[in-house]
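Allow me, if you will, to draw on your knowledge of protein folds for a short while. Thank you for your consideration; the sequence and its tokens are set out here:
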Amino acid sequence: MVGGSMGAHDGGGAREAVGANISHGAADLVRARAQLLEGGLPRNPRLDAESLRLALVDLYELWLTTKGTEVGITRDSGLALVAVGGLGRGEMLPYSDLDLVLLHDDVDPKLVAEIADQLWYPLWDAHIKLDHSVRTVAQAVRVATDDMVAALGMLEARHIVGDPELSALLIGEVRRNWRTGIRTRFDELITQVEARWQRSGEIAHRAEPDLKNGRGGLRDIQLLDALAIAQLTDAVPGLGPDVPGGGLTIAHRRLLDVRTELHRVAGRARDQLRAQDADEIGAALRIGDRFDLARTLSDSARTVGYSVDVGLRTAANALPRRGLARLRRLPVRRPLDEGVVEHSGEVVLARDARPQRDPGLILRVAASSARTGLPMSATTLNRLSEDAPELREPWPRGALNDLLILLGAGRGVIGAIEALDRTGLWGRLLPEWGAVRDLPPRDAQHVWTVDRHLMETVARAGSMSTRVARPDLLALGALLHDIGKGRAGDHSVVGAELATHIGRRLGLWPSDVSTLHAIVRYHLLLPDTATRRDLADPQTVQRVVDALDGDVQLLELLHTLAEADSLATGPGVWGEWKASLIGELVRRCRLVMAGEPLPTPEPIAPALIAKAKTGGVHVELRQGEGKYTYAVTVIAPDGTGLLSDAAGVLALHSLRVLSASLGSEGDSAIDEFLVSPEFGNPPDAGLLRQELIRAINGQLDVSTALAKREREAVGARASKYANAEPKLLWTKTSVPGQVILELRAEDRIGLLSRLAGALEHTNTDVRWAKVVTMGSAVVDSFCLDLGIDDTEKRRATIANAVLAMVARPEPRKPDGDRPAT
């Protein structure tokens, strides 16, 4: 429960406390509203979100009834004032528009206009946002008939002051027309809803969600109410007794509370939650920090989203069939599995199913849904939630097989697990899921919550099952690889222990339990090693082989899981360069595991050595293995600043460095880069050579040119400010005096050039470098030869120089410095 409710009594107390300030002018209304927002009531220093909404409803109604009576809107006047929108729903937010309709019946138009002016003008003069209209009942009903948005608004209409029979006539006619006309308007309604979702996105997976219009937001709850008024579905679909978060009613309350505090923080009407306001709103609602708030919103939005899916599906099935469809026979019940059938496009229980005696029925229903792509009936899920018993431990073999069918169903697994989870059934099967449910990611690379990421990984792994000898362990590993997140400690270590307990509960063989443990424990081993260590170093490969105890099957599973995990993380995390690096590491590990010697690094091509011996500067550019990647080889006299100049020239020509490696022959450096043009084709190698010669000779100031290009770039803010703090890691190698410096940061224009320049300015000898770019983030590893000068002071000097080159999060201004709104 978010916040605490003060109840109707305290809302009335707020009305009594501010009522003395209400007079004929709306300016007093504004002052009274400010008093409520500032917590100026004697008995209530600060109203919580729900009590504030109740007090605002009372406040507006008090002013409108007082003013309406004064200007002649009485019971026998032939006039009535009706509220729609937030005031109509009784959900008045601090700065929401005031939506009013002045109804009249056989009243002199001149008198109606005078009364309307006396009502509207004080509100306008007080700068209260007002959406108003003056209509007869017939006119208002006609507008609702012609305009879908107006119809949805009038369904929430509520009488404020004047002739109650006139208001009741309007409300009754609008609702009656909505019920009788929904059959012809349903397709238009669906089109508008889907367009809104497309425009505003999903609240659960947006960094700055639209709480009102996004999928899973307040508009969707109003949609459910509209479908209930049309008598097509219940406004609050049954979600079972074990629903995470408390169900739709609590989700509605939470969304309203967050939007209320958003208004209060912003000082004006706002629907989109900004990242910089999240901590303050979370604290005001006693939820926690921005991550806790994001988790709460994800839970609420996904509950609403599931409820809307059920509501729309139920409504569509409840509509009478049209045209030739009326002549077709009623849908038959097609068997899908034991106790499971298809009926009216949904997966339902067979008539002879006995959930109380069949604990595996939940998994068969879910597996049938995932396999066929048909949704599970809400009634079926509710019945299973109420009646199905717990699976005994270890699970029966049939239940494990049904779980594996579910996990191997491709994209269908996502919707099936989501439905089970929203109705409390998935948590019953996998209690450990609670810690990752709706858990927001902690880095910018992840676009999903942790639980959704696990489902996405399972879906990806399902399409790769033929690559491995044990697709069952691949599926289980994909499901559990991040199960340790949300708990204290290294999530790989914690998750491995949880995977052991889960594997035993599922009834796996002891050897398979050990493999599942190792999959979760080492699911990051291959990508971390391949992208951050020198694959030519025998010690690198040997460490991987030792960690996996020489198990080739485990290596195969981790290789496939690494790809599925990366693809399920977000755009840019998996690419040709990362695939080739991990593939090469796996190849070398296989050779060692097979007892063959690790091959030495391939020698530099003789042609390159020959060019290096001739001296001078040479640049070669050739097509890479991918369609949009290119290999650039730079040969030049070795010296301070060469790497910085070479990387800078590439950046100035819009070539993004995906990876880089350094080599040398005699007095010449041989540096190789894998690059990708930001757009179009790469420049000619001759042009790159000329620019590099200018940079080496001091005729081109690379750092100044990069700074200018960064300022001119569209979206240059990202080059200065990042979303997350950069991180530096130091690791010792097997060679005395050599250390590995690993940098994790957000990318910016010419970052490699800047980093190389920083290391050169600290007189640091770089033995080799490995650069990997993943989306907007980079993981750069440098092997530094510090010799006997490997001290904490020396490392601190290098770290400060490197961190000065990377983007840092924008400092948050103190509340007193926040610009006025």
Q: What stands out?
A: The chain is about 50% helix and 15% strand. The two ends are 30 Å apart (CA to CA). Residues 558 and 590 are 13 Å apart (CA to CA). Residues 201-320 form one domain.
